Amino acid sequence: MTPSQATAVERSADEPTASARPARPARAARPNGQWKVDGTAPLNGNEAWKQEDGGLSVRERIETIYSKEGFDSITGDDLHGRFRWWGLYTQRKPGIDGGKTATLEPHELEDRYFMLRVRIDGGGLTTEQLRVIADISTEFGRDTADITDRQNIQLHWIEVESVPEIWRRLEAVGLHTTEACGDVPRVVLGSPVAGIAKDELIDPRPVIEEITRRYIGIPELANLPRKFKTAVTGHPSQDVVHEINDVAFVALEHPELGIGYDLWVAGGLSANPRLGERLGAFVTAEQAPDVWHGVVQIFRDYGYRRLRNKARLKFLLADWGTEKFRQVLEDEYLGYHLPDGPPAPKPPSPGDHVGVHEQRDGNFYIGAAPYVGRVSGSILTGVADLAESVGSQRVRLTPHQKLLVLDVPPADVAAVVTGLRALSLEAEPSAFRRNTIACTGIEYCKLAIVDTKETARLTIDDLETRLGDTSRLKPITLHVNGCPNSCARIQTADIGLKGQLVTNDAGEQEPGFQVHLGGGLANQDREFAGMGRTVRGLKVTSANLSEYVERVVRRYESDKTSDETFAEWSHRADEEALQ
């Protein structure tokens, strides 16, 4: 036996065997920053500045310092953090290509101008309010305006020096930008036909008004882990994309309890998409504001704050499940049990409300499509003038980037349709103009990699020519997004396009998209929402987008069964057919 072998024997005789050794203590799980579990000590810089000086506080500095001393006087944590609590983001500096989006620092990407988001809960505007927004656009925003897919209006080229005056004008007519962005309860989506539709189950406006009156702009809910999105509808078409909101109330008639709401929680897309889930609970209209408050408090108190990419409510629900979530809601926050309820039935009609529709009072509302939400202050002024010329004083915005004029007398319907067309708002749009949406894109967004608005506009016009012979084609949704964050809901479109740089046939990189196929939310053609299919390597350049869409749509037309939707076909088709 060698000396080393002998030493090993002696050591082994003195040491316990592996099975006899005491078990190593389990490593303590890292805290997730859940206030009710881990305490409120901030675990990252973002959480630290939110606790030190909340986002709502920056308004005073904007009014008294930054608007007087200019852009260079703004501190970094205010500029890149707290400004969002008042609807302000710096916009992208012109001329920076998408290949630099991920390599440059925020201060290198951003311009000295702001995007300003006007918060419009429920999407309802008077013509007076619309005219004020339009005037702000033309006077302060270079005549820019976009209708978003969350019923807001976004303006661009806003200078910090102008912000106090803009707030003064908005607030004089009952509008504001409070918590239009930031880690807060964002705008509450509401049915665009609330209170007027002949087939409405319940008017959701009282619920929306109570939520916003009680809870928007209060310090207790102004520091959430991330943004919190809400939707409320009383219409059978389920017209508020409820499956992708953090909390949603969908009207239905309970067989025993009458008309109320089905409660959904924890939907969200972005780079980690997850559809919301029903809690199986029936909520009355009177209970809805308190239930909303309970859900948002769960998010505040139990949401994950350590990592921002895991800080949405969908991650908590994935760990808890619906049974625990409902129990915590009822036991800790409501103090009473919610009765069980059935799901709402499949929507019987489209939820974009495009076209001419009779109201319950005998007048009509007319829904019109701009090109992917792109309007202008001049167009909005024209809409206000047109509506008032026929005695209407109400318009609505939709979660599909559309605009409705309400209260049109029967004798004036044709004139309003024609007048909207003259303003580039189409009440009788082609299938692709009606069903295409697009995010802001590289034109203004610091996160974007490719252009979206102009690409979508050119594609729509091209497809109207290329596919004009497919008159019986069922509507196909086309969603165009400038980056992976899915502001344009790419995973829930028939054809969803995620912006990225794509290698072309010549081996060069150029703007393009990864393609998702066959997604969708509940609608007249599908009972349940579902995510799109991603085919490995399926990418298309922006220049070839129209050609690709035409090719895949014609394959669908030739291969589908009689009643098969594009989504159904694209999930069963061979990958070769989708190329």
UniProtKB/TrEMBL annotation:
Q: One Pfam family, please name it.
A: NIR_SIR_ferr
From start to end residue, where is composition biased (Low complexity)? Answer: 16-31
Q: Which UniProt keywords apply?
A: 4Fe-4S, Heme, Iron, Iron-sulfur, Metal-binding, Oxidoreductase, Thioether bond
Tell me where on the tree of life, at the top rank, the source sits. Answer: Bacteria
- Among its keywords, does the record have 4Fe-4S? yes
Nitrite/sulphite reductase 4Fe-4S domain boundaries: 182-335, 433-573
Q: Catalyses which reaction? A: hydrogen sulfide + 6 oxidized [2Fe-2S]-[ferredoxin] + 3 H2O = sulfite + 6 reduced [2Fe-2S]-[ferredoxin] + 7 H(+)
SUPFAM superfamilies, A to Z = Nitrite and sulphite reductase 4Fe-4S domain-like (SSF56014), Nitrite/Sulfite reductase N-terminal domain-like (SSF55124)
Enzyme Commission (EC) number? 1.8.7.1
Q: Keyword Translocase, does the record have it?
A: no
Q: What PANTHER family does this protein's entry cite?
A: FERREDOXIN--NITRITE REDUCTASE, CHLOROPLASTIC
Primary role: Catalyzes the reduction of sulfite to sulfide, a step in the biosynthesis of sulfur-containing amino acids and cofactors.
The entry assigns this protein to a family as follows: Belongs to the nitrite and sulfite reductase 4Fe-4S domain family.
User: What is the name attached to this protein's record?
Assistant: assimilatory sulfite reductase (ferredoxin)
Gene source species: Sanguibacter antarcticus
Its organism's taxonomic lineage begins at:
Bacteria, Bacillati, Actinomycetota, Actinomycetes, Micrococcales
